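yo, Mitochondrial nucleoid factor 1 is done. seq:
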Amino acid sequence: MYESLARLHSNYYKHKYPRPRDTSFSGLTLEEYKLILATDTLGELKDMNKGLWKKLQEKFSARSPEEKQKAWAQSLSRPRT
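structure:
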């Protein structure tokens, strides 16, 4: 068992069976994976995947409490049609 773990650790199989190209099952290279997994790229992807409702919630929840109260009072003071 120790010998098997030592072979894995020393990249024995990587050298014994070299890959013709540095790609994976998705066809992306190592540099493309690094770009995708970068923190700023993940943040952008999360923002893109948010639905309209979540975006609106974040937009309006960023207000100060006074602004929220003022907007609430304005919505109550408007006559209903």
